Amino acid sequence: MPWEDQGVEMESADSSEELSYVMNSPILSNVEENSGIFSNSSNFAIDNSDHAHSSLINYSVYNCYFYGQIANVIKASMCWSMFGVIVTFFTESNHGISLVRLVFNLSIILSSPFASILAGRTNIKTILSITTVIRTIIWSIMVPLFWYYLDYKCGYKRCFFFNFLCFMFIDGLQVSFSNIVDIDCGGFDSLSLQYDVPLSYTTRYRLNTVHQIVFDLSFFVVSLPVAYSIYRYSLAYPQNETLAFALGMPIIFLLLGLISLSFYLFGLPNSPCQEYRNEITIIRSYSFKLVLLQRLRDIFEGFCITIQNHTISSRLLFLTIETAFDDSLISLIIPSIAIHNGWFQYSNLIKPNLIAVFLISLGKLGGVIGMYFVQRRGINVNSISRSYLKLSQFTLLSMLSILLLPASVKLIDWLGLKGWVCVYIFGLVFFLFFLFNSLPKVWLSTLLQNAVSDYQVRHKIYYFVSLFITLIDALVIIGLNYSIPLPSTRGYFLKMLYYAAGFYSVYGILQIFIGPFMLY
């Protein structure tokens, strides 16, 4: 059947069938199904070979890929914990965080269709190497260099801010491409396919678990010591404190980037297996524009399926709010607490950076414990009466934890507390929130996956879901940021806490009372 769209015409039914083969080939389908936040399976796993399981760890290709990803995930945890304060420092604006996240997320959204197609046409070694090099250059060379000459030396703050936004847009492009082949998005499956080495479910699960543990522990064993070292250095050499803060994270980023790059370049083979090369030859024979247009159609079909299915759309809405609010806490609210709290006298943002990393680390610890509890006890998402009662209890506890944020400020002011004891109080609040919030996130994600699994074209739904969550994530952050007038100091901090508590309380009440009617 002919297929026409924007001047692109298929000449025969045979060519349409060939396009269908290309779009559903193992390479592209692997990219699509693992491009979102729900990837938990593979079409290429080989589970029936005990020999494969016992010898897999000896394959240098897996070792090098895994160690490169470990260095990358450590780098990610450090960036995540320091992002809010670092961006505020570079942009010198309380609205800088929301603008940067908007540009960054839009870059991911716009480039994702291109990234998934190019990932199906390109060697995984090439993708990992190029994205690692470009990200390392941006964060370790270009951003510090432009800041030093344009802002620090010449005082061209607006010029630097514009360049910084451009760098973040380019960085978002690299994240979009690298996400396709990262461990948590099915990277092991892509590796197994390209180099024709066996991959057992047990081994994949074990390595993915180690990867997640390293990410969680990195907040304590890497991010916190780095932030504390920068703080101690600024006390010992106050004349260099500004440069120390501007260069501290970029230097660690550079070291970790070089470690990842060395494993990718010297450990991964240059040439994939013959079967993969044959698949690539077929895929490359088709026009990139043609395949891109078909991919955009897939996204639109995923959108149509989602809005027409009440269950999927409701579950996606609740999960998106949970995800966006968590990210707002990390990227916006905790950095704002660290900067505008009034508990310390600041001459720079070095101590606020340490406070932010400390609070995020405690919150992450609560999340890890909560996930451990969920995995140990298990949840039956199909039992409305029992599982939803448990969900409601945890949602209520999460809501009460968030309400403790403004209440804690009142308590601190009433008792006249100052210094680190105030930080410890807020650390306890974030620990409790992420502890209780673990179950609702897992529960909603599982519900959505169960609803989508009934569709043969579920990869189209997942593709739309990942883009939708990325967009709403940026809009929630910018909405919280711009809903409050430009601050002077502490007033901004207090208003943001009230807005955040009110936002999540409304969501929690809706989930508790109308959730059973929308989610099932």
TrEMBL record:
It comes from the Eukaryota. Coiled coil: none annotated. Keywords: Membrane, Transmembrane, Transmembrane helix. The keyword Cell membrane does not apply. The keyword Membrane applies. The chain crosses the membrane at residues 66-90, 102-120, 126-148, 160-181, 213-231, 243-266, 354-374, 394-412, 418-440, 461-484, 496-519. This is Uncharacterized protein. It comes from Babesia microti (strain RI).
